[in-house]
Design brief:
Elements lengths: L6 E9 L2 H12 L6 E6 L7 H9 L6 E7 L5 H7 L7 E5 L3 H9 L6 H14 L4 H12 L1
Parallel strand pairs: 1-2, 1-3, 3-4
């Protein structure tokens, strides 16, 4: 990360209304964030996904980073965004969960974003747990 990068902007891009649902949760947990954009693809027939992406990219300066959270690797939303993934200030994370988004949103901007993303993905994986199995294991250990 260059020393002059001090602002991170975020885009949650999903099929349908998942993005607004995630934003609703983020607003409750972390508070409102003015640097958060949403794309809710395919809700309006005449709305171009490409135009939505370009409109957001126009709001990201060269000295700012854009971290994109997309819902499905290989999905049409991610595929449209991929063409901007080689820009030095655009970072795409696909298959996100709420824990991942929160950790990256709250990360110190002085820490290299690639390191933040790598560590956040590992931490987010630990949040995915088959709770019934966990409960059964704990119950059996208490017997």
């Amino acid at each position: 990360m260059e020393d002059n990068v001090n602002t991170r902007k975020f885009l949650i891009a999903t099929h349908g209304t998942l993005a607004s649902g995630v934003k609703s949760s983020l607003d409750i947990i972390t508070g409102a964030n003015d640097n958060l954009f949403l794309i809710q693809a395919y809700l309006e027939e005449n709305k171009s996904l490409e135009e939505e992406i370009l409109a957001i990219l126009e709001q990201v300066d060269d000295n700012e980073e854009l971290i994109v959270f997309s819902d499905l690797l290989g999905g049409s939303v991610t595929n449209q965004i991929l063409q901007y993934g080689l820009r030095p200030n655009v970072h795409i994370v696909s298959g996100f969960n709420l824990a991942l988004v929160i950790e990256i949103l709250l990360a110190d901007t002085k820490i290299d974003i690639e390191q933040v993303i790598k560590e956040s993905i590992e931490n987010a994986k630990e949040q995915m747990v088959y709770v019934n199995k966990l409960l059964t294991t704990q119950h059996n250990n208490n017997d």
